[in-house]
Amino acid sequence: MNWRGKPLVSLETIVNLIGATKTSSGLDVYARLDEGAYPDKIKVPDAELEAVNLHGDEFHPEWNYRIKPERLGHVATSGVTSA
Questions:
Q1: Could you tell me the pTM of the whole model?
Q2: Which residues, including other chains, have CB under 8 Å from residue 64's CB and lie 6 or more apart?
Q3: Which residues, at least 6 apart from 58, have a Cβ–Cβ distance to it below 8 Å?
Q4: Which of 19, 45, 61, 74 could bridge 51 with an S-S bond, Cβ 3.0-4.6 Å?
Q5: Which residues of 34-58 are buried (b: 16+ CB within 10 A; e: fewer)?
């Protein structure tokens, strides 16, 4: 079950619950299902991963984090390209 106590029985249910999210500060969330196919198990070099400016939250930083703009002097270059 999700945080609202509703069973996550389908992708439609999940997308609708995400899309119904609103914050007290006025943020409205838009969600849609992306059924695209994407490569998996891509190996990212340690140096490239280190260049990502991640900031973990106090509560479960392994799940909750922010990605901030690139730090000066650090430019991530990936060998992965999109078609």
A1: 0.49
A2: 56, 57
A3: none
A4: 74
A5: eeeeeeeeeeeeeeeeeeeeeeeee
Compute the distance between CA of residue 77 and CA of residue 51 in angstroms, rounded to an integer.
9
Amino acid in position 83: A
Distance in angstroms (rounded) separating the CA atoms of residues 31 and 18: 6
| Unique residue bearing structure tokens 């079950």 | 1
The phi and psi torsions of 5 (rounded to 5 degrees) equal 75, 20
The answer to whether 67 and 53 have CB atoms below 8 angstroms apart is yes
Q: Mean pLDDT, to the nearest integer, of 56-65?
A: 91
CA 49, 79, 64 angle in degrees (round to 5)? 30
